[in-house]
Amino acid sequence: xxxxxxxxxxxxxxxxxxxxxxxxxxxxxxxxxxxxxxxxxxxxxxxxxxxxxxxxxxxxxxxxxxxxxxxxxxxxxxxxxxxxxxxxxxxxxxxxxxxxxxxxxxxx
Length: 108
Description:
By secondary structure, this protein is mostly helical. It has helices spanning about 5-40, 45-75, 80-105. Helix 1 runs antiparallel to helix 2 (about 45-75). It is elongated and about 60 Å long. The N and C termini lie far apart (about 60 Å).
């Protein structure tokens, strides 16, 4: 028979690894977005094109961060972490929504 304590620890370690991986992807998205934006600005393609370029990368980074926070809460779902996740999810969702609206406006 399986040892449930061992499985719980294994799941916790796996989730911590995935959380770190998602947070790393988020940082990579920001760095790549910054690099691409600087290249766009260097080629003098315009500020609106650069904002659109960077905004897309930031939106992707926000999605990775939200996924990392959700994973962290699934392992240890106490009330405090659930409240924090709810607040973070609302803030990031609003940020992502308004960023998407601005990007949509930029493409028109």
